[in-house]
């Protein structure tokens, strides 16, 4: 993780001389998160595991933006609270909700184009867990994973507003434990993000 964070700041430094504007600021907001469960192989006790209701989490951190004419590069370092759930479908007709809650550090690098105050961007996200998701998903929890973000933003003076979708390139957990039995699965998180940014520093 240290290498990725260091690389992000070196990227900012490398482009500083050629950039028209180099901007730093803070950003944060709310996330509407869902959990997708695939490749679940049930048995005589648990027939299926499905996505539960979407839950609200949050993110907060800092960003840097390198503006190159109409193009921009925006590395970020974010603390993200992940909150989700899945629902078991048991053979006896009952169901049970399992929570998947943990915290992580996210390092998005958004590449995009600015059309006046409007920005369109897409890029990869490296994620690093800093807490565990709960007993049901601990056994095969992936502490590092890769996602992508794509969205649109608008700049309003020193303020900015962004709406993004984040989808998974890799799984968050590869099994789920229910009633003492561990089942192989592919569990992935997606989220819709609404964020607000505040520019603190801008250099030509």
Q: Specify the overall morphology.
A: elongated
Biggest sheet strand order reads 1-3-4-5-6-7-8-10
The parts where pLDDT drops under 50 for at least 5 residues are none
How many angstroms does the end-to-end distance come to? 30 Å
Please name the CATH architecture.
Beta Barrel
Q: What fraction strand? A: over 45%
- Number of DSSP helical runs: 1
Question: From N to C, what is the helix and strand string?
Answer: HEEEEEEEEEE
The major beta sheet can be summarized as: 8 strands, antiparallel, barrel
Q: The CATH topology, please?
A: Porin
Oligomer: single chain
Mean pLDDT score: 86
CATH first level:
Mainly Beta
Q: In terms of structural class, how would the helical and strand content be classed?
A: mainly beta
Number of spatially distinct domains: 1
Fraction of helical residues: under 10%
Let me know the number of strands.
10
Q: What is the radius of gyration computed over CA atoms, rounded to a whole number of angstroms?
A: 19 Å
Task: Write up this protein.
By secondary structure, this protein is mainly beta. The chain has one domain: Beta Barrel (Porin), CATH 2.40.160. It has one helix and ten strands; from the N terminus they run αββββββββββ. It has one helix spanning 2-15; strands spanning 21-38, 46-51, 55-68, 71-90, 95-115, 118-129, 144-156, 159-168, 173-178, 181-203. An eight-stranded antiparallel β-barrel has the order 1-3-4-5-6-7-8-10. The longest helix has 14 residues, at 2-15. The protein is elongated. The two termini are 30 Å apart.
